Each structure stands twice: as C-alpha cells, then as structure tokens.
Amino acid sequence: MKALFLLLTGMVLSLTGIAQVIKVRPPEPITDSIIYQTDNVTLIFDRKHLTEYMATMDSTLRNSKYSNKVFNSVQFAHLNAIDMGNHFRKAYCYLEDTANKDFSYSTGKMNMLWAEDGGIMLPYVEEIMPDLLAAGEVRVIDRSTKAIQPVYKMIAEPVDGTNYRVFRLNSGREIFRESTFRVEQLTRR
C-alpha cells in the first residue's frame, strides 16, 4: 500500500513538473471581442485572431479540395467536401459581415452546426483556442473571483498516443481541454 502511495505521489509530481507556465500578454485594447465561457472561466480574445485564421483557412481549404481532414474538430468529421465547403463559406461570410456582433459562446449552451447566428463560428473558435491560449493571447477571467489571471498552466494530456494540451488555472481548475474537441476522440467511443 505504501509503495502504491509513493508511486501515485511520484506520478502527480512528475505531471506538475512538466507543466508550462503561460504568461498572458499585456492587455491591448480589444475593439471587437469574442467571449467563450466555461464552468470555471470566461475567455476573451480579439475577433481579429479569428478573422486572420479564417482568411488563412480559405486558401488552405481550397488547396485541399475542402477536405474535412484540414480541421481537427469532431463536429466536422462527418462532413463531405461539399458540406465542408458550404459550411466554411457560410461561416466566413457571417464573420466578415461587420453587422454581426453575436460572438458569445458558453459550454453550457448548445449550438447547432448549421446555425443562422454566431453559433456557426463555434467549431472554428474551439479550433484556434488552444493556440491562442498557448500564445497568451486570451484574457482569462476566473468566474469565482472575477479576477483576470496573469498566468496559467499548460500540461500535456496523452490520449491514444497523442499529446493534447490542457490549460489550468494556478488553483488547478480547468480552463480548456484540447482533447474534448478533437477528431481522435471519436475512435474511443
């Protein structure tokens, strides 16, 4: 029993030892924000990040003949090339229309893949969120204290031989788990 306790303690310490501390960049004025709310935090980032990503993906998708394999999102796994192209164009047009201001998402609210509102953008937001968090481009607000978090941790989560990123507050509460939104999760069910 003592050996098992020591083994578990060693594993916990090794996991915390490989955590990377992410420092949030100094806040720049956000003119047009996107808000993503989880149980523990509210994440805020500039719409320009999503606009830049979508512009890059426009040419990437065309070059790949609108293959859904370009994205890692579970939501796109069942789409054929025609549906993927239609969805991307519809989402891109929604994003480019400056009159659209509905960019607030919550993990507690269901969004339809083919929504006529800002919900159509959710898979793309979840696609870029890990990279933005890793770069410190997201304002992280702890929902329990309402305080902006200047630093947080990123750890690796091995799933079926692939490492995914998990972002946590210093208190240990989860910010965002990359593996939740990746295609590889379909094979585990």
Would you summarize the structure shown here?
With 189 residues, the chain is of the alpha+beta class. It has helices at residues 2-17, 47-63, 81-96, 122-134; strands at residues 20-23, 33-37, 41-46, 104-106, 139-142, 151-159, 162-168, 174-177.
Description:
The structure is a single chain. The chain is an alpha+beta fold and 189 residues long. The protein is built from 4 helices and 8 strands. A hairpin with a 2-residue loop joins strand 6 (151-159) and strand 7 (162-168). Helix 2 (47-63) packs antiparallel against helix 3 (81-96) and helix 2 crosses helix 4 (122-134). The radius of gyration is 18 Å and the shape is globular.
What key attributes describe this structure?
189 residues; alpha+beta; 8 strands; disordered C terminus
Average pLDDT: 86
Strand element count = 8
Strand content: 15-25%
What's the helix-strand series? Answer: HEEEHHEHEEEE
Shape: globular
Proportion in helices: 25-40%
Total number of helices: 4
Strand order of the largest sheet: 1-6-7-8
Could you state the oligomeric state of the chains shown? Answer: single chain
Low confidence ranges = 4-10, 12-17, 185-189
SSE layout:
Layout: H1 2-17, E1 20-23, E2 33-37, E3 41-46, H2 47-63, H3 81-96, E4 104-106, H4 122-134, E5 139-142, E6 151-159, E7 162-168, E8 174-177
Parallel strand pairs: 2-4
Antiparallel strand pairs: 1-6, 2-3, 3-5, 6-7, 7-8
